[in-house]
Amino acid sequence: MRKLLASVVVAAAALVTGPAVAADIPEYPDIEIPEVDYGLGGSFYLRGSAAINLHWAREVSHAATWTGQIVHPVDQLGYGYSWGAGFGYETGDGLRFDGTIDSVETRGLRITKAGLPAPDENGTYTLMLRSTVALANIYYDFGFGGDSFGYSGAGGAFGYVGAGAGVAWNNASVNVSPAANTPVPTGGNVSAAGALMAGVGYDMGTWVADLGYRALYINQINNSPTDPAVDPGLYYSIDNNWIHELRGTVRYRFN
Questions:
Q1: Residues sharing a CB contact under 8 Å with residue 226, sequence separation 6 or more, in sequence order
Q2: Alpha-carbon torsion (137, 143, 149, 152), positive or negative
Q3: What total of structural domains would you count in the chain?
């Protein structure tokens, strides 16, 4: 009987004190740990560009009918414009890569022939060039902060440098003043091409705009298939062409 009474007392005490003890136990809220945003992430993009340019070359070579190969210094730069499009990928840590195709036009690159005996014709010879240039490019974007290394694509102003390599398909024609008795044949060639680039831009998230300088290199321009062996006074070649461009670009990110 005593054991039964003791059990009843302990049970009653537990019923009375249990809720009070439970009320004294502190409740801890659930803690949510946010994901870390490093500001990095790759994305694909489309781009469009337009530029104005100056065409520089040192000299024009051709096979003269009376003395063999002859070289004329360029005495006036050409000028023109370009436009193009491309597709690329940026890694999110400053590097990006793209392929571009540009239509490049210049006119006004000039030489002057004087004192040449017949049948070579004296006068001013002015080049008109149309090229389609395909390049594979690599760039490095960098922020302007003191501790910036690379560019995270987090928005704001940035700078960039870049380089490209590829091919140019050239089509060239020549105007002669006074008009030549035998016009210089129009022609063209395929040449190695390259580019060096630098500039500044502003990242608005989905859209990115930049303004920069591009030095476009075309190894040689000539009027092939004109044959220097058949028409020695009419075939010409221009080596080491540099087309200096002020170029604006807009990029659209997919993600």
A1: 185, 187, 234, 235
A2: negative
A3: 1
Amino acid code (one letter) for 196: L
Tokens of 114: 């004087």
- CA atoms of 155 and 174, how far apart (whole Å): 48
**Burial environment of residue 179 by CB neighbours within 10 A (0 to 12, 13 to 18, 19 or more):** exposed
The residue to which tokens 């298939």 are assigned: 225
Question: For the chain, how big is the Rg over CA atoms in Å?
Answer: 36
Q: Give residue-wise pLDDT tens across range 122-174.
A: 889 999 999 999 999 999 999 886 555 566 666 789 999 999 999 999 999 99
Report whether pLDDT(58) > 80. yes
CA dist 214 and 53 (Å) reads 9
At 23, which helix (H) or strand (E)?
helix 2-24
Q: How many residues does the chain have?
A: 255
The strand pair at 123-143 and 43-56 is best described as: unpaired
Paired residues of 151 in beta bridges: none
In which residue are the tokens 């337009």 written? 50
What CATH number does residue 77 fall under? 2.40.160.20
Element (H, E) at 47: strand 43-56
Cα torsion 117, 121, 122, 127: sign: negative
What tokens does 42 get? 């790759």
CA 145 to chain centre: 23
8 Å CB contact between 207 and 251: yes
Q: Compare 229 and 200 and report the one with higher pLDDT.
A: 200
For residue 37, what are the domain limits? Answer: 2-253
